[in-house]
Amino acid sequence: MYFQSWSDFWAMGGYGLFVWLSFGLTYLLLAGLIGYSHYQQRAFSRQLAERLAREQRIKQYQEQSE
């Protein structure tokens, strides 16, 4: 589609609000999904490290008790 000016481009034939709102909402949701995934990955790594450390402490305690 060819636009005569930048204002025509931003207006999108009268549908600019809906077009740009949908683009903005899409990018906002994608950014939120990426952020949440990163947070979940860090939380999982932290939980795994804590679990391995706890299992190591239990193993050391059991070896000392014998």
From TrEMBL:
Bilayer-crossing regions: 12-36
Record has Transport as a keyword: yes
Listed name of the protein: Heme exporter protein D
Primary location recorded for the protein, binned into one broad class: membrane
Topology within the bilayer: Single-pass membrane protein
Stated family: Belongs to the CcmD/CycX/HelD family.
Location of the protein in the cell: Cell inner membrane
Swiss-Prot/TrEMBL keywords: Cell inner membrane, Cell membrane, Cytochrome c-type biogenesis, Membrane, Transmembrane, Transmembrane helix, Transport
Keyword Transport attributed: yes
Signal sequence range: none
Function text: Required for the export of heme to the periplasm for the biogenesis of c-type cytochromes.
Gene label: ccmD
